[in-house]
Amino acid sequence: YLLFLFARKSIIQLDMANTKKALIVPAFETLRYRLSFPKSKAELLSMLDMGTLFTFRYHVWTKGHAPTNFAKWRTATTPYRVEWEADFEPYVVVRKDCPEYDRRFVGFGWNKVAHIMELDAQEYEFTVLPNAYMIHMPHAPSFDITKFRSNKQYRICLKTLKEEFQQDMSRHYGFAALKYLTAENN
């Protein structure tokens, strides 16, 4: 509920109705099945310092949320802009007329990455909300992530879809999209 109130206020203040912005909600996680949700940023920071919470997927997929710049977020009091980087997959609040998720990416893998890439290609500004946050709770692995981990064919198929998507981005956005083709090679 607090996220909703803060996001609503930010949507108005940042003039999202008339601008292309993707508001990033910093993501954290806990390894505990029971957690008293922090009622403030100060309480969340305390839980981070105590090791009750961690930045989202820090131990398995740092690249997915690193551009959020959690060190800056700790002390931020105003929204701040971050740049797209390869494999960036933050949770965002966007206008309903933004690009839809690419339907090639169902199940596990690359749905958020492709969406953020498309937003970047369309020149959305990525703005981190300084007082908003979400917490991922532990749960059993999904059917699709289990397939991804255990089935080489699944991984090959996802790689093919990813390459096809990057080629489509290049064709659609031209020279500006070359960074998406070369991102993994840098």
UniProtKB/TrEMBL annotation:
GO biological process: protein O-linked glycosylation via mannose
Keyword entries, A-Z: Glycoprotein, Membrane, Signal-anchor, Transferase, Transmembrane, Transmembrane helix
Domain of life: Eukaryota
Protease found in the keyword field: no
GO molecular function, one term: glucuronosyltransferase activity
Main location: membrane
Membrane topology listed for this record: Single-pass type II membrane protein
Gene Ontology CC: Golgi apparatus; membrane
Localisation per UniProt entry: Membrane
Name of this chain's protein: LARG1 glucuronyltransferase
Protein source organism: Nyctibius grandis (Great potoo)
